[in-house]
Predict the structure.
Amino acid sequence: MVEILIAAALGVLAGALGTAAWLRRSGSPARERRTGGTAAALQRAILDSLQDGVVVYDENERIVFFNPAASEVLGVSRESLAAGVRTWDPLDAEGRTLDEDARPVAITARTGEPCVGVDIGLRTPTGDVRWTTVSTRALHAEPADNGRYAVVVAFTDITERREAQRALERTNAELAQFAYVASHDLSEPLRMVSSYLQLLRRRYHGQIDEDADEFIDFAVEGANRMRALIEDLLAYSRAGRGAEPRPVDLSHVMADVLSSLAAAVADARAQVSVGAMPVVVGDRLALSQVLQNLVANALKFRSGPSACVWIEAERQHETMWRVTVADDGIGIDERHRDRVFKMFQRLHDREAFEGTGIGLAICRKIVERQGGEIWVDGREGGGSVFSFTVPAVPAPSLVDPATGEPRRVGTPVG
Amino acid sequence: MSPLASSRPARVLLVEDNEADVRLTREALREAGGDVRLSAVGDGEQALAYLRREEGFAEAPRPDLVLLDLNLPRKNGLEVLDELRADERLAAIPVIVLTSSAARADVEAAYTRGANAFVVKPLELDAFVDLIGAIRGFWLEVAQLPSA
């Protein structure tokens, strides 16, 4: 975008201010041919209609051109801007006053190097701050006689976008905090309810009448279920808040997951086959939680007395791996496939399959936090295929994280 | 046999502000069996007054064991621990922190201040009864205690 703006600005300048000596140094022959009146008028019209501000400074940092959007975004009248009035204080992305020398315009004027997409706040004399993304480029390849460069600045008003993003971050943080506090604070009274109900059952079971026994059983069951939900809420609010991403060998993670699921594997009389697993970038604990949930589901939702599970990985494209966990289980009807990733959504009644419906929601949260996606497809011949993507190790560092030796990507488990 | 030589019931002071929790501990002790006399106070200031036999607690017998919650009104469990360990008459009394928080920082802080054990209250009644039974078994029967 900034390239187009700058090209257009150059065209207009060449047309409108073509006599200025400093400008003549800019032109390639091709550009000069394009600087006829019609082209300049067209470019002028484009610049006038833009929502992005464009300002051109000469080598003495005097404004020699600006479009209408510039005066609007900067909150300075065209007359004042033309007279070189600067009423705004530049702030860095964190809202601190920016040093004069650190402004993108000053950097480009001093070095001739471009600045691209820098977030700058503009504090007006009333204290309001408008946020912009600023790009700058030197107007000429060579500096002027004073050693400084003339600069083209293009900037976009991102105040609303930034505010929306800030609000979203705040909401997310508040929600996480809420879930954590709520589940913590709910645990205490629930412990009382559940303990006393159990005490009632322990002391008075069979001593009042059948109705009383049944009522107490229902109440105990309800309290147990509530406790499971609270624990899951806590687990969900904690999920993905883990460590910095680093290289993780999924073959090791898979080996851990299978050993901790050994009982469930035996229980499901399952055949589990694990293909070649890559080294990916992520949080090891979180990734093992994802794989553990997916494999545990594959074992749990089996269609008969035994289960087959296939875990494989393939390179999705340059930057991602796709890991799949396939099973020959009961499968998921196509219309429910999005629903299974939502919190506390279940497709089966509790008699058929236990659970609160948090596992896949946690998987989705973790996978998305690490920049991946998770989804489910049906498997030909019955069953489900859960897939998720996870960042690959950037190409230059395809080395074994343990030995530092180059490694073959996709070492089988074992 | 018990180091207390069964000559008298073991004495335990429970510092806990939640009435329901006090009663639950009493019931768990009853379920777990054994002759234990449980006294309870509801905040940190009362706990120290009890142990020092101050206002209202002049007749309070010195406990063999203190069960201390951390979240207490007026003076919290960690402050009680600090004062207890700084008081040479009380410094030897074994204190078990019995709380619902398993926060890492609380565990470290409690041991640093001289807690003898840090135990998290389980959610299941059966587990709680087992826990109280285990505390009674170890601290009031197995362990040698300072003279009360």
Notes: The longest strand of chain B covers residues 10-15. The two ends of chain B are 18 Å apart (CA to CA). The mean pLDDT of chain B is 88. Helices of chain B lie at 19-32, 44-51, 77-86, 104-112, 125-142.
